[in-house]
Amino acid sequence: MHQMTLAEIARGLADKKFSSEELTKVLLARITQLDPQLNSFISLTEELAIEQAKAADVRRANGESGALLGAPIAHKDLFCTQGIRTSCGSKMLDNFKAPYDATVVAKLAAAGAVTLGKTNMDEFAMGSANESSYYGAVKNPWNLEHVPGGSSGGSAAAVAARLLPAATATDTGGSIRQPAAFTNLTGLKPTYGRVSRWGMIAYASSLDQGGPLARTAEDCAIMLQGMAGFDQNDSTSIDEPVPDYSASLNESLQGLRIGVPKEYFSAGLDPRIAELIQNSIKELQKLGAVIKEISLPNMQHAIPAYYVIAPAEASSNLSRFDGVRFGHRCENPQNLIDLYKRSRGEGFGPEVQRRIMVGAYALSAGYYDAYYLKAQKIRRLVKNDFMAAFNEVDIILGPTTPNPAWKLGAKNSDPVAAYLEDVYTITANLAGLPGLSMPAGFVDGLPVGVQLLAPYFQEGRLLNVAHQYQLNTDWHTRTPTGF
Ligand code: GLN
To answer: Residue 208: phi, psi to the nearest 5?
Structure first.
């Protein structure tokens, strides 16, 4: 039962092969049995899950249908869930029970999805390995000695290990696509503004975007359908109609123009990954796509720009966690400054503190022009590169990451080494573009992802290309041993 995708679950529920309650119980038992190896959940919400599953079964019995009605999912632990701990992977929010549901949570619940729990993540979504969580590192089900990627590592590991079919995640610089690549999943970061950020605890507000992690493009389409849409509570939410993502999955790829940036195949890329990317290109050519070499000349400046902008926004967003308005409060403060210092010093882990310091520095008088403003100018150049490229091609293809998942602890002593791994993903966030990662093969038994990028609001096209690719390849069906 646990092997089923969302699409298969929807068919099984519609055909009354099983109930949502039965399926939910099977998956909850599986999580209890297997998750100790992975640490992919911070909280399990068994009671809520059973209650929602029963309600979904009643709605189906009353004639309602819908791909998410009765489908078990989980939420990354930065989506606010009313009355349920929403920790953001931080000691700072260890005892925070959100007073309301995030829009994404409310929308998925209204569609009938069943929440099994809240998934582990890098603290405040800062990281690429899920090792900065206050609740401990998450293990990669493909090799328990390796990281699952981050910051949505809990969602990724849980879905990859077949603990559940899909989960929500967020992507500020790659945190949906990179863990998807590391765990053999399909992950979609939508256009900035497509999915509401209301109730999604902010890391870097101009970059953050929620999206789905699932095993197939077909399932990502189902999840995105439930998540996307205008929200008047989010001032950056975009009032554009949401297309039917499942309806466009079967469009032909004949004549599709795929751009492959020459900058992608530089020295930093593992040659074995380069080969798998070439194979995926050949596969898409067989389906009628036409390949064109393109250039993204400012790509090399994207990492430094991102690692100024993201910490700058984070330093501002995280100022609310001061032990008074929000978050952990230290014992016996001597005065107000002592209260702030110790509450923040105790509540935030080292990576979060590092970023707050970098961000506050970049925004400070005298350095603002030199760092923050300069980074914003680079951001515009990165966007312009994409706009020029999309005059010539329909989608851009390349590796999701330069290397496969590294060993736990391997990059802990050198944060910059981890930052450099974001080279292929962060440009989409800087430009606000949609991006998808899908399985493309294995290197030393570890999964490799191929990334597709599209113009604004072309999520449907990304899902269409990925679905056609998945109809003709079987990488996405491979299951990690032991799960
Ligand atoms: N690895 C990037 C960072 O640490 C991206 C994280 C994310 O997308 N949330 O900032």
So the answer is: -60, 135
Ligand 1 pocket residue status of 130, Cβ below 6 Å: no
pLDDT in tens, 396-427: 999 999 999 999 999 988 888 899 999 999 99
Residue 406, φ and ψ in degrees, nearest 5: -90, 170
Residues 6 or more apart from 248 whose CB is under 8 A from it? 460, 461, 463, 464
How confident is the model at residue 419, as a pLDDT? 92
For residue 314, give the amino acid letter.
Answer: A
Name which residue sits closest to atom 2 of ligand 1, judged by CA: 173
Strands (E), 173-227: 186-189, 210-214
For residue 376, how far is its CA from the centre of ligand 1 (angstroms)? 18
Six-digit token string for 141: 């089900």
Q: At what angle do helices 217-227 and 103-110 cross, to 10 degrees?
A: 110
Q: What pTM does this model have?
A: 0.98
Matching CATH number, 6-255, of 3.90.1300.10, 2.60.120.10, 3.40.50.2300, 3.40.50.620: 3.90.1300.10
The full set of domain ranges for the chain reads: 6-255
pLDDT at 413: 86
Please give the biggest Cα pair distance in the chain.
70
Structure confidence by residue, pLDDT tens digits, 95-144: 999 999 999 999 999 999 999 999 999 999 999 999 999 999 999 999 99
175 is an active site residue: yes
Average pLDDT, the chain: 97
Judge whether 19 counts as a catalytic residue: no
Q: Which atom of ligand 1 is nearest to the CA of 203?
A: 9
